[in-house]
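Project standup — Tuesday

K.O.: blocked on the structure for the chain from last sprint. Re-posting the sequence here as requested.
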Amino acid sequence: MTDDALLSMPRRKLLAGLGAAAIGGVTGRAVGPSCAQTSKSSAVVPSILAFDVNESLLDIRHLAPLFERLFGDGKFVNDWYTQLILHSEAISLAGGPYIPFFNLSEAVLKSMGAIHSVSIRQPDIVELEMRLATMPAHPDVPEGLRHV
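H.V.: unblocked you, prediction finished:
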């Protein structure tokens, strides 16, 4: 699937597809429309459903006011999130120790501050934590989850 196709896909269909892919990865069996066509006795009933929550379900734009205030542009939240995912994946792939999401979020914010000569103070860290803890779901998420 092309990037353009993913970007134009309604979130509900994307969530359903991601959920099916996650279930398939956990069970080792295909799940979705083609699986639904099989007999009920062979249907897969997943015991686990996993989602990448941030930005798939929760709207990281909720963090933009913090980045607007610190860096002069709310779009810096995208750079922060990209770096956060990159560091998280690198640590996981390298077999590194578990680092709580917020601790890594804080470290990436401080790193961005150092790169852009912006002082990150304790109140900024508290605001990041508060905003991360209160990120709203995208408007179409509840309906999309009902279709998974």
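K.O.: great, moving the ticket to review. The CA atoms of residues 122 and 128 lie 10 Å apart. The radius of gyration is 19 Å.
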